[in-house]
Each structure stands twice: as structure tokens, then as C-alpha cells.
Amino acid sequence: MLFTLNKGKLQYIVSVAIVLSVSGLCFIVKEDLNYRIVALILLLTVSVIAMLYDIFPVLLSALLSAFIWNYCFIPPIFTLDVGNAEDLLMFMSYFFVAMLNAVLTFKIRQAEKNVRDREEKEKTITLYNTLLNSLSHELRTPIATILGTVDTLKDNNDKLDKEQQFDLLNDIGIASIRLNRQVENILNMSRLESGTLKPKLDWCDMEELVNGIIRKADVLNGHKISFTPTANLPLFKFDIGFTEQILLNLIHNAVLYTPKQSVVMVEVAPLLDDCIITVSDNGNGFPQQQLSMVFDKFYRLPNTKSGGSGLGLSIVKGFTEAQNGTVTLENIPTGGARFIIRIPAEMSYLNNLKNE
């Protein structure tokens, strides 16, 4: 018969089982153990239980250990009688210490939990405020651009020539893409934190995927995106959507935070059982002391220009780890930064795939 136990019942069962097991082991070797040593062993057992479980299972284990110590170890054994006043005092002391130990340990755990809850609440409030601050600027800016440009087109449609209209429509398109990216990043981060994202494996032509992403890239500011496919690049089996988001965010991050005319280089290569994706640039790189923090949510380097919410690299890390991969960042000695994505993936060449 299959059944489930709730957390409370399981704690009672495990607490009793631990006390009985330790008592049984002590009883087996009781000829070599003084019953006073057994008392210390049982007290240690109750202390360990108190560090793990709630107060009532711990109190039960303290009562049970006191009873077992009296019945099975204090002479005369197999009776609740205590042979002399010294043993009676020791038993009462054991009972008091065991109960006090259970209560105090539980109180300490509760205090630690309260501190953690307070810290978590403060952290949540900080993230919430950061998100609001980010949204107030990063979403308001493209929305304001769209509304302002639409008003200009409506009010001055007869006065604008074709080229001016095209420029205004292009501004709307750029702002819409930026707005969509910010909303998409927020939704992706929410899905990552909820744990609902599960990779869907499918065969992917990385040459086609990267070229498609480069065509989607907006506001290049004179940047050049370079991708030279590796000869005989195989197909990789992983989540195409996750990998596309990884590359989109890395390329956008490089374009946004490197000087104009910088070159962003994308490389893809197989290595053993992994797909290695490298995105590098010839910009200014990252401050060495900041390398470990760039993947934190909402983290942005000091004195960086506006245009990002601090979510892009967090999403890169989240989507990579969702595929059991790793992401590393390093500065290039000659200048610039290099992101290396390593994703475990089955590989197959097109001819082999057609024959499967």
C-alpha cells in the first residue's frame, strides 16, 4: 500500500527512530559502557535532533531518551526504580537538561530563521525597488519615443516628406524592439525563477541560428558583428529557444556597452560532447573586481550608459544552466571581453541525421 506522510508526522517517526537506534546500539555494548556515558550519548542525540526538527518531535525524543535511559541503563535495569539518591538526582538532571536543550536549540533555530526571513524580505524589497526603477526608465523611454513619434506623424503628416516619414517609422520600430526586449527579459527572468522552464531538445543548425540572430540585431551604432562558421560544423541537439536568447542577450550586451565601431565576434565549435559558443569583443572589457557580479540580477557596472535593465546576463546564465551548461567571462589581454558558453549536446552531421 502506497501512502505519503506529511512533514510533521515524518519528523516524529524519524526522531523516535533515531533515539531507538542509538539506544539499541548502546544497549548492545552496555557491558563496555558506563550508564553515565550513555546519558551523554543520548543527550548528544537529542541535540542533533533539535538542530533538525520542530519543537514537539524534539520534546518527544527527549522524553523517550530519558525513559529509555532510566529503564534500560540505570541499575536496576528493566525497571523505573532508581537505586540510589545520586542516580535519582542524575536522572532528574538528565531530564531537565534534555528538555532545556531541546527548547533552547529550537529557540536558536527560530531566531536564525527570523533573521533569514528578515534578510530575504529586505532583499526582495531591494529587488522590487530596483525593478521599479529599471522599468520606470527602460520601459518609459521607448514608450515615450513611440507616443511622441506617432503624434508627430499624425500632426505633421502633410508636411513630412517620404524620407522624414521613413526615419520616424524607423524610430518607432527601434523603440518597439527595445520595449519588446525589456518585457521579454522580465518575463524570462520570472519564468526562470519560478522553475517552470524545461529545455525542449531539438536538432539545431547553429550557422543558421547565428546568422538569423545577427539579422535581428538592432541599433548597431556602427558595430560590426563577425561570424565565421567552423568548417563541417555539426548539428547540435539542445533547446533552440534557450540558445537563441543566450546569443541575443550576449550580442546586445556587447553592442550596448562597447564603443562605436567595435567588433563583436561569434564563434561556435564542437568540443568532446559539448557545444562551445564564444562571444567576444574588442571593447574596454570589465573591471577585474566586477567579473563575479555581472551575472547577478539587475547588476549594472558603475557609470554605464542607460539602455539596459541588468537582466540580460542573468538570463544568459539562467538559460545556460537550464541546459546543464556553464558560462564564464574573462577579459582579453589585448582588450575586450570574452563570454564562453559550454552546453552539453548530442551532435550529428546532416547526412547522418537523414539516415537515422
Automatic annotation (TrEMBL):
<feature type="transmembrane region" description="Helical">
    <location>
        <begin position="88"/>
        <end position="108"/>
    </location>
</feature>
<dbReference type="GO" id="GO:0000155">
    <property type="term" value="F:phosphorelay sensor kinase activity"/>
</dbReference>
<feature type="transmembrane region" description="Helical">
    <location>
        <begin position="12"/>
        <end position="29"/>
    </location>
</feature>
<dbReference type="Pfam" id="PF02518">
    <property type="entry name" value="HATPase_c"/>
</dbReference>
<keyword id="KW-0547">Nucleotide-binding</keyword>
<dbReference type="Pfam" id="PF00512">
    <property type="entry name" value="HisKA"/>
</dbReference>
<keyword id="KW-0472">Membrane</keyword>
<dbReference type="InterPro" id="IPR004358">
    <property type="entry name" value="Sig_transdc_His_kin-like_C"/>
</dbReference>
<keyword id="KW-0067">ATP-binding</keyword>
<dbReference type="InterPro" id="IPR036890">
    <property type="entry name" value="HATPase_C_sf"/>
</dbReference>
<dbReference type="InterPro" id="IPR052023">
    <property type="entry name" value="Histidine_kinase_KdpD"/>
</dbReference>
<keyword id="KW-0812">Transmembrane</keyword>
<keyword id="KW-0418">Kinase</keyword>
<feature type="transmembrane region" description="Helical">
    <location>
        <begin position="41"/>
        <end position="68"/>
    </location>
</feature>
<dbReference type="InterPro" id="IPR005467">
    <property type="entry name" value="His_kinase_dom"/>
</dbReference>
<keyword id="KW-0597">Phosphoprotein</keyword>
<dbReference type="InterPro" id="IPR036097">
    <property type="entry name" value="HisK_dim/P_sf"/>
</dbReference>
<dbReference type="GO" id="GO:0005524">
    <property type="term" value="F:ATP binding"/>
</dbReference>
<dbReference type="InterPro" id="IPR038318">
    <property type="entry name" value="KdpD_sf"/>
</dbReference>
<dbReference type="InterPro" id="IPR003594">
    <property type="entry name" value="HATPase_dom"/>
</dbReference>
<dbReference type="InterPro" id="IPR025201">
    <property type="entry name" value="KdpD_TM"/>
</dbReference>
<dbReference type="Pfam" id="PF13493">
    <property type="entry name" value="DUF4118"/>
</dbReference>
<protein>
    <recommendedName>
        <fullName>histidine kinase</fullName>
        <ecNumber>2.7.13.3</ecNumber>
    </recommendedName>
</protein>
<dbReference type="GO" id="GO:0005886">
    <property type="term" value="C:plasma membrane"/>
</dbReference>
<keyword id="KW-0902">Two-component regulatory system</keyword>
<feature type="domain" description="Histidine kinase">
    <location>
        <begin position="134"/>
        <end position="347"/>
    </location>
</feature>
<dbReference type="InterPro" id="IPR003661">
    <property type="entry name" value="HisK_dim/P_dom"/>
</dbReference>
<keyword id="KW-1133">Transmembrane helix</keyword>
<keyword id="KW-0808">Transferase</keyword>
